[in-house]
Amino acid sequence: MERKIRVLVAKPGLDGHDRGAKVIARALRDAGMEVIYTGLRQTPEQVVNAAIQEDVDVIAMSILSGAHNHLFPRVMDLLKEKKIDDVLVVGGGVIPDDDIPGLKAAGIAEVFTPGTPTTTTIEFIRNNLKRKV
Amino acid sequence: MYDSASLVSGIRKGDPRSIARSITLVEREDPARLAVLKAINADIGHAHIVGITGPPGSGKSTLTDKLLKELRSRGRRVAVAAIDPSSPFTGGAILGDRIRMQRHADDDGVFIRSLATRGHLGGLSRATTETVRIFDAAGFDDIIIETVGVGQSEVDIVRLADTVVLVSVPGLGDDIQAIKAGVMEIGDVFCVNKADRDGSERVIREIRAMLEAAVMNGAATRFSALYQALDQLKAVDRTEGQSSPRASSSGLFDQGAAHHIARQPPGHDALEIPAVIPTTAETGDGVSRLVDEIKAHEAALVATGFLRLRRHENLSWELGNALADRVLRRLEGEDRKIELADLASAVLDKRKDFYEALGILEGSLAG
Fold it and tell me: What is the pTM of this model?
């Protein structure tokens, strides 16, 4: 039985820069994961619906616009509404340190800020999956 | 967490999580999938299965996005299986077809699933056929399979789709591309995308010439036998007036025929070739006509009985293929590897000849 880690890499919100998201997508692919990339300017609803249809183990979101305190918790609320509790959600981007505890309280498992080695993110994902691999 | 009974009732209700989770079982080749597939077996066979294939960068995803839009406007529920390649080295994959279709993510009449090939050759992933069955049981009217970008031999799509749309684009190479065997021979509906670019008219001409030549040479194309059967139906229809229920209910002879007799080669009045349809997926130009053509093809398959014929052929092939897979898997065990190594040594040392060794292996596989 073959088991692959499937990750949705998403860019919620309105910022137009996805270089970071693409670097992460590529690093996860090179780590043997299947990465579904949805492109720019996604609503939280689109992110959650795509995660359901793709049956991913992980949602990795990147935000550079400053709207993380709104968008990240909104995704978590939608997941709760749909009773999805077995998906690991991580965030990244330009996120001030002061905001991180609040995001974690909302259910974002970890927040990776600029300069984080991709290996750290990969390790974290591998060690914190909520579904059995 | 998810038992097969609740997955099955979820699939029948069109519940996205049940559909998605079942596809995951199929992708993992989880034995639990067998109960699900068995239970939905009676529910399948209603959807129109459409394959979209063509070279990398020909605009298959953008075209699929526009097909989704057009089919939705005609009130149809549509599922998409979008296939992208896995890395042969890491096993990882970037599945990016969804980028072009994300506008449909909020539409509950659309379900999109990305599948990685996971080492499977031929343009599809191993899980594609069973994924299509799950979509079918979930009541989707149309199922679109977008293959990986194909070269010249990835033709598995013909074993699965009722209607194969071959997407070409201008600027890929000289006219010899059009006479190459393989992918050019598998289309039911032909489309030249990026038709706003220079050279598109030439590509259309070349494909038409190729199709005409194939018909005149008596080559086995996907459409020749179908068109002959259609002609016979039309002849019957003419003798019986408008009484044929099949013909009038399908609307085949009002619209379908007009789409299909695109051009008759000179001196071959009875021969027909499919229309070659220019599209510009980026703007949506030509997409409505492409959908008309896809649906006319489906109507022709239904009217002639070719739909069942094709599905029957495909199932025979799939059974044989699944058996070959099972046999191959029996070569993977540790004991078998040792046996293979021993027999190889025997052949190398000239204690046995090759076919003697093969016979021994065959005997022990059967036992």
Answer: 0.89
